[in-house]
Amino acid sequence: MKVKLIKRKNPQKKTEEKVYASPVNAGRKTLRDIARDIAGRSSLTRGDIENVLANFTDCLPAYLRDGFSVQLGEFGTMRLTLSSKGAETEKDFNTETIKPRLTFTPGVELKSALRETAYETMREKAAQQGSGSSEEDNNP
Questions:
Q1: What is the CATH number of domain 2-138?
Q2: Whether the model pTM is above 0.90
């Protein structure tokens, strides 16, 4: 996995800056991309898989709104959490201040697989290619 190094204030000592790793965004995978990748590993067609994934994404919000957590095998669990502005009394509470958030807790196998990731900083890659300094290296 590619990471870039970014200077940020140290959360423990606000006056001190430290360098932290930040993932490099390689783009995004669409539902179609995922379906194509899965189809290449199974006897199902891309259309079959897209259909299943689309139906899953259609059903998921209702499960969460109904108060269920959604356990997806070894992948992990999704649940809805809420944040809102506090009120002095129940009568003063305004439901319009409620903001839903989706919380994902990865499963044990997924966490384990991610721990085994090899990390490569953008500077290391440039040095291996012998390209010297690049714009990415100068602007972490």
A1: 4.10.520.10
A2: no
Q: Which of the pair, 2 or 77, is modelled with greater confidence? A: 77
Question: Is residue 119 a contact partner of residue 21, using CB atoms and an 8 Å limit?
Answer: yes
User: Of how many residues is the chain composed?
Assistant: 140
CB of 82 within 8 A of CB of 95?
no
Instruction: Return the H-helix or E-strand segment holding 77.
Output: strand 76-83
Instruction: Tell me how far apart the alpha carbons of residues 92 and 78 are, in angstroms, rounded to a whole number.
Output: 31
Q: What is the dihedral of CA 120, 126, 130, 132, to 10 degrees?
A: -140
Q: What angle do CA 131, 133, 134 make, to 5 degrees?
A: 90
Domain residue spans of the chain: 2-138
Percent of the chain with pLDDT over 70: 88
Sign of CA dihedral 124, 129, 130, 132: negative
Q: Distance between CA atoms of 63 and 83, rounded to whole angstroms? A: 19
